[in-house]
Amino acid sequence: MEPEECVTGRYTFAVIGGGIAGVSCVEQILEFDPEASILLISSSPVVKVATQVTRLSKTLEDFIVLEKPLKSFKDVHQSVRVVHGVVAELLPEQHLVITKAGEKFQYKKVCICAGASPKVLFPGWEHVVGIRDTESVAQLAQRISKARKVLLLGNGGIATEFVHEVTGVDIVWAIKDKSISAHFVDPGAAEFFIQSKLSNINASQPGDTASPNISTSCDPCEHVSTSASTSGEGVAVTSVQTTELDSDTTSKNLPSKRRKYTISSILPDSGKESQKQDSFGSALGPDWHQNVNLKGQNLLKNVEILYEKECVGIRTNESTGADMWPVLAELNDGSVIGCDLVVSATGVSPNCSLFKYCEQEIEKGIFTDDAMRTSVKDVYAAGDVCFPNWTWSKHWFQMRLWTQARQMGLYAGKSMFLSAQNELNPDDATEIDLDFCFECFSHVTRFFGFKVVLLGLFNGQGLDKAKQHLLIRCTKNLEYIKLVLEDWRLQGAILIGDTGLEETFENLILNQVDLSSYGEDLLNPDIDIEDYFD
Ligand code: FAD
Q: Which stretches make up the NADH-rubredoxin oxidoreductase C-terminal domain (predicted)?
């Protein structure tokens, strides 16, 4: 124990990080004991609070994230000491957290919720921008406002939303995969987005029409008249219903490697000023683009998608002149793209290096057990910074998402509180059971303006392709539903549009009911599947 005069304060619980994981952890402890002695240290001047939480199913919650000043959080939770500071050291033996400003705080239990940082390709280059927090989005908006053409690198949720939200600029979207948004959805859903939102005008096929490369397994166009087929990847596919597909599109060859689209719908700009914050800001949530004006110099937006392409180098254009691009990016096929700006949305790395004594892997994060405990006594971790190192249930896996940051934060809070209680009352000790939310992966988000629900092994993650069977229903501009089955038991689902089927399919994943007797009727639009399984 540190001498009294050396310590700034003593707390039962300390939480490092004011993102969604840290705040959820604090809120959960307060649920148990509104008077609990808690310290929250955050390097960001704002905290992220989940509001308007709506339960959509057993494991699926929709909510809005609000950024609130640290002070207002303190006003609401008066028993919490909120410190705006950067943690420089955590000394687990002494149970001390030390800030850069030299303050020392003693704790009994601490939770590391320090989040993750973007892996910006070509860091330090003037013409490269990464998206991470409110400040980086504000910078991005400023740079976009002067841009006519942007090279976008990355194929996750952020890149997908960027393509949808940005207006008035040409986007060259270079992706490593064979289909857009591959981190989240399958090629069929990607094609649904393209056909619903990107193909209205000018779907041109420029020079490079190399061999078709979008996987055909889930291409909705392909399934118009198919009752059952086997995809190139060996997954059996049955299309129950596809409607309103362009006859034009169905008769065309499969998509080429290189395609050009013009977005027809240009969204109105919100034009609000974004908030200024320091360089350790929290990761953004799904509405990261809502408060900024992401509009470039052009009247329209052209999107060119380059499949299976990576950027291998960039250089500043030595030549100057009105029609010269300031930056030249070289792709893995040797082609060079000239543009005003390169936007890097290429994933994140957990901020775990400060906490080296906790068992960790640099790309995975700090390992936690099934009670969110790290390898170090009284040190817990939650959210993007951690790696859940327990045997996962068959239908759950980690994705660094806002939903999971909240689930882990809440669960860590519960675990810390119970552990502290158990130490006070060892004769009455309570064991913690793994929270039910870790039974089935679930996530709700919006892509291209559509509600997107992902359940279980929605892309057949880890399943034997030979045993998988896909059922697909697709109605252009309305919905795309894909079910992943193994031995006629539901393993995962992608639901795009307002299908209202999330609860039903989540139950079927959790219960592992044999669905062979329903067969393709599972997605028959004339059968009310919800009533069937009520
Ligand atoms: P963070 O929110 O990153 O919070 C980390 C906190 O730790 C911050 O408060 C930071 O200031 C603090 N901190 C870090 N180091 C220190 C230190 N040394 N001392 C003190 N404090 C420290 N997820 C979705 O589910 N849906 C989406 O649509 C979605 N869109 C996204 C869009 C963008 C542009 C980005 C960047 C992410 C998006 N995410 C999305 C991911 C989601 O934002 C993160 O998974 C989630 O915010 C992680 O929460 P966290 O609390 O673990 O970490």
A: 468-512
Q: Residues lining ligand 1, judged by CB closer than 6 Å?
A: 16-22, 41-44, 48, 86-87, 113-115, 131-132, 157-158, 280-286, 288, 351, 354, 383-384, 400-403, 405, 445
b/e per residue, 212-250, with b = 16+ CB within 10 A? Answer: ebbbbbbbbbbbeeeeeeebeeebbbbbbbbeebeeebe
Write the residue with the smallest CA distance to atom 15 of ligand 1.
Answer: 114
Are 197 and 333 within one domain? yes
In a domain, 242, yes or no: no
Token pair, residue 327, equals: 């930056």
Structurally, how many domains does the chain consist of? 3
Which residue segment(s) compose the domain that 359 sits in? 4-117+348-424
| Among 344, 366, 401, residue at a domain's last position | 344
Nearest-CA residue for atom 26 of ligand 1 = 286
CA-nearest residue for atom 47, ligand 1, is: 283
pLDDT digits (tens, 9 = 90+) for 184-236: 777 888 788 877 766 532 333 323 322 222 222 233 333 322 223 334 344 55
Between CA 375 and CA 368 the distance in angstroms is: 7
Strand partners, 358: none
- Position 425 pLDDT exceeds 50: yes
Residue 21 has a CB neighbour count (10 Å cut-off) of 36
pLDDT at 287: 64
CA of 60 to the centre of ligand 1 (A): 20
58 and 82 belong to one structural domain? yes
**Any domain includes 288:** yes
